[in-house]
Specification:
The chain has helices at residues 2-28, 34-46, 79-91, 96-103, 113-120, 131-139, 157-162, 195-225, 236-253, 267-274, 276-293, 317-333, 363-379, and strands at residues 55-62, 67-74, 122-124, 143-145, 167-174, 177-185, 257-264, 299-304, 307-313, 349-356, 385-386. With 392 residues, it is of the alpha+beta class.
Length: 392
């Protein structure tokens, strides 16, 4: 009878585990947006109806830059915060679907100090002496650091960040390739991590790896569809979309938003004299220069022909003017191929500025104003920046 009861209990546990994984897997299939997929994964790791860890952090492999970068961390920072969050979940009887849905209406989890710490962490992807994260990637195997073994890694950045006494690490695999790493602990409850916990984390990691790969493939395809093929900048259609989105954000937060229009001076002469291939090379060089000199928060777009556009969120006209002038001078100083055949012996650019709210309250008004200031800059002799329509 005891053996039968044990078998029955094991079957019930296995059924519960499968239900948890099924629920998380279904949730991951509801979206292809990477940020949402990552949030669902970590909600599954930390939710009381999921794997039930106190905290979890997710890191992705960035092969292009040769690093492993923190993307998301979910979990309370201390016992007081934990009791508040868990108490609310218990009071409202929130299940997995409720927890995932709540994220769409609240930024509390992603704005936490723990998440910010995770997102700041970037470690080199090295097979030798690369630390715990690299070890997890290259070994492709789970790690369970107990109170005794974690001391061997006390100088590792991830151990110092989490400050855990016990830690579970699992790779996120897709077709035997590690896409990232999940780390989980029980910082608040001090509940021991069991073999079953590790087993569940591995199974979730395998599903999560495939979901992440699908999401990355989707986002790469999306980026290609919105990118200008010659310059690798955002294309005209996506520029219009981005400006609309940033305008809505600016209105909602009462923040400034600036737009810079930039046009290469005498480009037609260069193109007609040296041919379109030479002109294309200039456009590519210009795009590279503009992208390298722009801020991470800005959007650099190819508006059309030899004209480029910059969307500058949270930037007033004074700051935008400084940015525009810096760009103009950088272009003037740059040595472009065969630029000596141009009238002024140098390849230069003219720039026009517009700023929300004073120069327009809609995307079309902002574009129209920046077009006017760009025209004035051209009319004033080129290689200049204009920010007022009454300065002609």
């Amino acid at each position: 009878m005891e053996e039968l009861a044990k078998i029955k209990e094991e079957l019930q546990n296995a059924k519960a585990e499968l239900n948890i994984l099924y629920e998380i897997s279904n949730a991951m299939r509801t979206t292809l947006k990477l940020d949402e997929v990552l949030y669902i994964i970590l909600t599954g790791v930390t939710a009381h109806t999921g794997l039930g860890f106190n905290r979890a952090a997710l890191f992705l492999v960035n092969e292009k830059e040769g690093i492993i970068e923190g993307r998301l961390g979910i979990g309370p920072g201390n016992a007081e915060e934990a009791n508040r969050i868990w108490g609310q979940i218990e009071q409202e009887k929130m299940d997995m679907e409720d927890l995932i849905g709540a994220h769409k209406f609240s930024n509390e989890a992603t704005e936490s100090n723990f998440n910010r710490q995770v997102q700041r962490l970037r470690t080199p992807l090295k097979e030798q002496n690369g630390g715990l994260l690299s070890l997890g990637v290259f070994e492709g195997m789970p790690l369970h650091l107990t109170r005794e073994t974690i001391q061997n890694y006390r100088h590792d950045p991830i151990v110092q960040l989490l400050n855990s006494e016990e830690l579970a690490i699992a790779p996120l695999k897709a077709k035997d390739k590690v896409k990232g790493i999940i780390l989980a602990d029980n910082l608040i409850t001090k509940k021991p991590i069991t073999k079953d916990d590790i087993h569940m984390l591995i199974m979730l990691g395998n599903q999560a790896g495939l979901a992440i790969e699908n999401s990355q493939l989707y986002e790469n395809a999306l980026i290609r569809s919105h990118t200008d093929s010659l310059t690798d900048l955002w294309n005209h259609g996506y520029f219009q979309y981005l400006l609309q989105i940033e305008m809505e954000k600016a209105k909602a937060t009462a923040s400034p938003l600036s737009l810079i229009s930039l046009d290469i001076d005498d480009f037609k002469i260069y193109n007609d004299t040296l041919g379109h291939q030479a002109g294309d090379q200039i456009l590519k060089k210009m795009a590279q220069l503009l992208k390298n000199q722009s801020r991470k928060m800005d959007y650099v777009c190819r508006y059309g022909g030899e004209e480029f556009a910059f969307i500058l969120p949270n930037t007033d006209k004074k700051e935008a003017l400084m940015i525009a002038e810096r760009l103009r001078l950088d272009i003037e100083k740059y040595n472009f191929t065969k630029e000596e055949m141009l009238p002024n012996k140098k390849l230069t650019a003219s720039l026009g500025l517009a700023c929300y709210p004073q120069d327009g309250s809609t995307p079309s008004e902002l574009i129209a104003y920046s077009d006017k200031t760009l025209y004035i800059a051209k009319h004033k002799g080129k290689n200049t920046t204009c920010y007022e329509t009454d300065s002609a």
